[in-house]
Amino acid sequence: MDSGLIFYILFGPALFALAWFIVAGINLLIRVMVDRLTVIHAGRSARTYVRKHQRDTLPHGLL
């Protein structure tokens, strides 16, 4: 038997599992970052809306 074939028989499933875990980890990191950016953006949008609304409704000079 060729040593390369033995290598792939022994370590093929392990390499596949390692690659799968790497891809899953990258996917999880991307999802977490997107969720954080969405929350940050939503918070900024809400604060901007409140600030603009207060500016439009309060008398001049109070804000």
Task: Give a structural overview.
The chain has 63 residues and is mainly α. The chain has a domain at 21-63. The chain is 87% helix and 0% strand. The radius of gyration is 27 Å and the shape is rod-shaped.
Question: Which short descriptors sum up this protein?
Answer:
63 residues; mainly alpha; 1 helix; rod-shaped
Give the N-to-C terminal Cα separation: 82 Å
The mean pLDDT is: 79
Beta-strand percentage range: under 5%
Uncertain segments: none
Count helical runs.
1
Helicity, as a percent range: over 70%
Structural class: mainly alpha
Spatial shape: rod-shaped
Element order, helices and strands?
Answer: H
| Rg (C-alpha, Å) | 27 Å
Give the biggest beta sheet. none
Number of strands: 0
Short structural summary:
The chain has 63 residues and is mainly α. The chain is built from one helix and no strands. The termini are far apart.
What is the secondary structure topology, with strand pairs?
Blueprint: H1 3-57
